[in-house]
């Protein structure tokens, strides 16, 4: 019997790649300004924009400048700005009381943005590290990070942020039980519409280095965070963290860092179908910027490609220091 040879090539997948129009037609994922959360660093003073050396293009801004930045972000269609305070070393203490001072930098910035740019949502960070004399996210006694005592402090911190007008509370501390405790306290205080984005799967990562410079915590940090942040070797454990945080009242969950943990993003989205975010952290930003500044990669293209990868992995949005640059680029395409 005569055999008909299989047609060659069996499929011409290049057909739908031949023009920009075809590529647009079959594109599976999109990246828009709606997907972006912009982390910014706040410092005291006035009229200040101070460069962070390990994060080219990123500055610490005084509150007046943060308000201007929030205006620009809102005009670019960025829905959320996320505040991180650079705390003066004189305000760092063992009891971390500055964390729930109603007039601390983060709360002052929140009120100023709310007043001037009401349409942008404000996310705040819940963790003690900017205020802690030893740089840890929780209280340290005899070299141990205390869980339950820290959670009580985090509740006070979260309440002061909600009081100031935060729309999204972002617990980044990795203590056990903090989501439930914060949710209960917010409900009791009448903050029923304040959302929680839990840093649910946050790994003990080397990629946070430049951030710790930016908030002035690197010099302070004694030891590492491996007894509370996750082991990079683990994946099932991330799902347990996410499931627990959803049960305790998180509205949205986050995986952090981003690029080396896209597998975790995918597993989380497929397992829970909740709003899922990734944090493209300071070290990821710094790597792309450093290579681009050396002329080793095309920085703009690498930025867009890296952010699209999060969408492909199943994320609903990304916290990224590139937010305004990529929003500007998307607007002119
Ligand atoms: C602190 C916190 C960190 C980041 C966000 N919140 C650093 C850390 O856990 O040491 C890192 C963000 C980044 O690297 O961009 N609770």
UniProtKB/TrEMBL annotation:
EC number: 4.2.1.24
InterPro entries: ALAD, ALAD_AS, Aldolase_TIM
Catalytic reaction equation(s): 2 5-aminolevulinate = porphobilinogen + 2 H2O + H(+)
Annotated metabolic or biological route of this protein: Porphyrin-containing compound metabolism; protoporphyrin-IX biosynthesis; coproporphyrinogen-III from 5-aminolevulinate: step 1/4
GO cellular component: cytosol
UniProt entry keywords in alphabetical sequence: Heme biosynthesis, Lyase, Porphyrin biosynthesis
Protein name: Delta-aminolevulinic acid dehydratase
The protein's assembly and partners: Homooctamer.
GO BP annotations, alphabetical order: protoporphyrinogen IX biosynthetic process
Keyword Cell cycle: no
Transmembrane feature ranges: none
Active site per the UniProt annotation: 202 (schiff-base intermediate with substrate), 256 (schiff-base intermediate with substrate)
Family listed: Belongs to the ALAD family.
SUPFAM superfamilies in the cross-refs: Aldolase
Gene3D superfamilies registered for this protein in UniProt: Aldolase class I
GO molecular function, one term: zinc ion binding
CDD domains per UniProt: ALAD_PBGS_aspartate_rich
């Amino acid at each position: 019997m005569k055999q008909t040879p299989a047609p060659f090539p069996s499929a011409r997948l290049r057909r739908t790649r031949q023009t920009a129009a075809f590529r647009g037609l079959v594109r599976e994922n999109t990246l828009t300004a709606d997907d972006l959360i912009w982390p910014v660093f706040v410092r005291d003073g006035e009229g200040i924009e101070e460069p962070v050396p390990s994060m080219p293009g990123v500055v610490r801004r005084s509150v007046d400048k943060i308000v201007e930045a929030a205006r620009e972000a809102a005009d670019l269609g960025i829905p959320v700005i996320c505040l991180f305070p650079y705390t003066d070393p004189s305000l760092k203490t063992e009891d971390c009381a500055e964390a729930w001072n109603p007039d601390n930098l983060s709360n002052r910035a929140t009120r100023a943005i709310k007043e001037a740019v009401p349409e942008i949502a404000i996310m705040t960070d819940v963790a003690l590290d900017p205020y802690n004399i030893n740089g840890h996210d929780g209280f340290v006694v005899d070299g141990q990070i205390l869980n339950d005592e820290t959670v009580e402090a985090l509740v006070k911190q979260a309440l002061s942020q909600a009081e100031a007008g935060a729309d999204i509370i972002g617990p980044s501390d990795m203590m056990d039980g903090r989501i439930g405790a914060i949710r209960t306290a917010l409900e009791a205080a009448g903050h029923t519409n304040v959302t929680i984005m839990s840093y649910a799967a946050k790994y003990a990562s080397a990629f946070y280095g430049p951030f710790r410079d930016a908030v002035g915590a690197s010099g302070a940090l004694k030891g590492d965070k491996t007894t509370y942040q996750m082991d990079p070797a683990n994946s099932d454990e991330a799902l347990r963290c996410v499931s627990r945080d959803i049960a305790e009242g998180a509205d949205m969950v986050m995986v952090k860092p981003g690029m080396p943990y896209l597998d975790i993003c995918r597993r989380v989205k497929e397992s829970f179908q909740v709003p899922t975010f990734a944090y493209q952290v300071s070290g990821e930003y710094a790597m792309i910027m450093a290579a681009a500044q050396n002329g080793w990669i095309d920085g703009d293209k690498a930025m867009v490609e890296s952010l699209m990868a999060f969408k492909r992995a199943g994320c609903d949005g990304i916290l990224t220091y590139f937010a305004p640059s990529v929003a500007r680029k998307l607007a002119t395409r």
